Amino acid sequence: MAANHVKFLCVWLSFSISSVFTITLAQSDNYIVHMDLSAMPKAFSGQQSWYLATLSSLSTSLVAKTNATIDSSKLLYSYNHVIHGFSASLTPEELEALKKAPGYISSIRDRTIKADTTHSYKFLGLNYDSGAWPVSDFGKDVIIGVIDTGVWPESESFNDGGMTDVPSKWKGECESGTQFNSSLCNKKLIGARYFNKALIARNPNITISMNSARDTEGHGTHTSTTAAGNYVKDASYFGYAKGTARGMAPGARVAMYKALWDEGGESSDIMAAIDQAITDGCDVLSMSLGLDQVQLYEDPIAIATFAAIEKNIFVSTSAGNEGPDVETLHNGTPWVLTVAAGTMDREFGATMSFGSNSVDGMALYPGNFSSTQLPIVFMDSCNSTAELRKVVDKIVVCQDPGKEDSLNDQFNFVQVAGNVAGIFITNNSNVDVFTQAPFPAVFLEQKDGDILVKYIKSSNDPKASIEFKKTFLGTKPSPTVTSYTSRGPSYSCASVLKPDVMAPGDSVLAAWPSNLGVARVNEDLVYSNFNLLSGTSMACPHVSGIAALVKGAHPDWSPAAIRSALMTTSDVTDNTGKPIKDVGRSLRPADPLAMGAGHVNPNKALDPGLIYDASVQDYLNLLCALNFTEAQIKTITKSSSIDCSNPSLDLNYPSFIAVFRDVTAKANSTTVREFTRTVTNVVEGSFTYKATVTPIKGVKVTVEPDVLVFKGKNEKKSFKLSIEGPRQLDEAVSFGYLTWEDSGGKHVVRSPVVATSYIIE
Ligand SMILES: *[C@@H]1O[C@H](CO)[C@@H](O)[C@H](O)[C@H]1NC(C)=O
Ligand SMILES: *[C@@H]1O[C@H](CO)[C@@H](O)[C@H](O)[C@H]1NC(C)=O
Ligand SMILES: *[C@@H]1O[C@H](CO)[C@@H](O)[C@H](O)[C@H]1NC(C)=O
Ligand SMILES: *[C@@H]1O[C@H](CO)[C@@H](O)[C@H](O)[C@H]1NC(C)=O
Ligand SMILES: *[C@@H]1O[C@H](CO)[C@@H](O)[C@H](O)[C@H]1NC(C)=O
Ligand SMILES: *[C@@H]1O[C@H](CO)[C@@H](O)[C@H](O)[C@H]1NC(C)=O
Ligand SMILES: *[C@@H]1O[C@H](CO)[C@@H](O)[C@H](O)[C@H]1NC(C)=O
Ligand SMILES: *[C@@H]1O[C@H](CO)[C@@H](O)[C@H](O)[C@H]1NC(C)=O
């Protein structure tokens, strides 16, 4: 039960077309094809004409058998930035012929991609008078490209009140299409495009229900307004989470690139969307989607985002919702930011009043409920619909016996019986799966339930009233790591610690298409302009917006510098001052494989003191050290020649992970893992930084030198961090933190350090 429900809650969208559609031309499939541009004959006017000629040359070689002509419709996309190459719909024979064509490097089959499914600004410490908002001018003129399910342009969150003209560098468009007029864009929503050629090629008989950038799913409207929605007063979800809604960067612009459809999602459409976003002039890309268990050179998102990084575009992605198991994370790509999901200090519920007492419980019932005192009865295990029906006009109270599925069963019995309301006394840790009930339901902790039951048992005529639509703030502890957020290490590059940071992902309020039902009251769908969603899909756009703020304040910073600022300034303690806890690990302290460097802190991210920068060449050196073939590396870098003279797994990253795993090791024999890192002072003035390392169980960490003196801005200093440990570490994961702190105590530059015996394969 719980597992199924959790899946629904977390994996809000799961695009999987293969089960729904069968491929008409059984032998045809979409391929992303990498070509060596240096092999292009001079006679061709451009890449696209060369690709078309290459494709039709395949048809001549096949013509004897099929007499088919490969017309230009075979070519789906000719890419400009993300790869040198194209995508095309090809039969196996055509693919084999293509492999012999001049300039062919490699090809990958198209893949189906899935998305990972207002208060958060206050929780993150943003305010009008100081810090990230005013310093960055609210992200003004930073353009965030969102690759998602489209937008609902009429949403109040896309109002452009108070916004200046669209930045002159913008080259994007507002494409018209089904129920989407190009005049629907404005100074906030500055672009809207859609991509589905590959989806249609794979399913020739498909009918695209909404052939435009209009959102029929809701996900894209929610993520894009989380990143950069404008102010909307009196936003709420049926009275829950009431307040003024706004995105993380209310001054930033949004451009939507719809590539996820009700009918499915194809990687070559996503690549085309990223390609266009680069051409259009986006500054930040936000992608709440990903592919599990793929190598970097086979991951279209990793390949396409390499081109974005080369153009200085910051890329934020979601870690996935497959936690709490280890190595479930996707987008563990060294050049993007990978975001985990945490909780906020906010809960939704109801207050019950009875006798002279009152208790609060959890609830998200969207309907209206009488405020009068109603008869209430204790039904203990609530395991019989027939018994419950006998008291249908009363509020029933159920004690969850705490067995597997018992809460689920009670919930269903009460729903079927149709009692006035159901009160469930439970310690089920997945209770949030039930709160959005289609009937009036309240979930009480045992101690509060005991007070209620005692009252009922002692009263001749027990009555209670319930007030729904309550928002409780200040939940402790918070943030916590959600159970569902996917965990590292990275499948595709285990030498870089992932995820990078955590951001709010649980019960996030953001805009929603007004024609899409958000919940049910009894049998009826109910509608709202705002919806509460949970998932790493919701965490990712928070950081996209915050990255826009950092970029607004520091337009010259590289994507790696912005990532470093976000990571080294994040928080590792919660609102009780204790280490952030992990809901997926029975509230034990969260490790960096769950939350990365910590919970993102936008105000501090603007002034990190030091940064760990990395260039495109540094990423190339890493790819060389991963022992990829030349063709595999070229697939990612697109360069005609590659310089692998300095291979190194030691990317200049603001976190550290070392593997101690040698089952054949003799007892007590030790080994040392070394990292060389370079930090850049990004503040005017001279500073002396001193290193401290928290003790890490099972290993010894040293830093040399442990004092760094900077004479001025942009000065770089290197240091070596060594981890000495047994060849075979006892712990699966052992961790601590390296902190560089300036003598004035103004800048604290923290990096997680992980030692693991975990097998990464
Ligand atoms: C697609 O349409 C054609 C022509 O209408 C039909 O023959 C074929 O069976 C359809 N294929 C699928 C998979 O529905
Ligand atoms: C083969 O294609 C050519 C050109 O489209 C056409 O003229 C010819 O009739 C076709 N032959 C057959 C056997 O279909
Ligand atoms: C778009 O909307 C405007 C204003 O409502 C209207 O004048 C125009 O004709 C519409 N364009 C299209 C292509 O429907
Ligand atoms: C609840 O009451 C409000 C205000 O009267 C009304 O607009 C809304 O439709 C009601 N909700 C339901 C589910 O009946
Ligand atoms: C319901 O639970 C009670 C104990 O609370 C038990 O005696 C009874 O057998 C259960 N009934 C059913 C139908 O499971
Ligand atoms: C939950 O409640 C049940 C029954 O009251 C109890 O057996 C169980 O130990 C409780 N679990 C937790 C985690 O408190
Ligand atoms: C790459 O190959 C070298 C030489 O065979 C080997 O020592 C090294 O461990 C390999 N690196 C990785 C990341 O597999
Ligand atoms: C390993 O080290 C422990 C503690 O330092 C010691 O008690 C033990 O005898 C050593 N074992 C071997 C095989 O040297």
UniProtKB/TrEMBL annotation:
Inhibitor I9 domain ranges (all copies): 30-115
Instruction: State the InterPro entries in the record.
Output: Peptidase_S8/S53_dom, Peptidase_S8/S53_dom_sf, Peptidase_S8_Ser-AS, Peptidase_S8_subtilisin-rel, Peptidases_S8_3, S8pro/Inhibitor_I9, S8pro/Inhibitor_I9_sf, SBT
Q: Where is the Peptidase S8/S53 domain?
A: 139-573
Superkingdom, natural source: Eukaryota
Ranges of residues in domain Subtilisin-like protease fibronectin type-III:
650-754
The protein depicted here goes by the name Peptidase S8/S53 domain-containing protein
A single GO cellular-component term on record: extracellular region
- What subcellular compartments does it reside in? Secreted
Q: Which residues form the active site?
A: D148 (charge relay system), H219 (charge relay system), S537 (charge relay system)
Alphabetized, the UniProt keywords read:
Glycoprotein, Hydrolase, Protease, Secreted, Serine protease, Signal
Is Hydrolase tagged as a keyword?
Answer: yes
Q: Name one Pfam family in it.
A: fn3_6
Q: Show which residues constitute the signal peptide.
A: 1-22
Q: Name one GO biological process term.
A: proteolysis
Primary residence: secreted
Q: Which family does it belong to?
A: Belongs to the peptidase S8 family.
Q: A Gene Ontology molecular-function term? A: serine-type endopeptidase activity
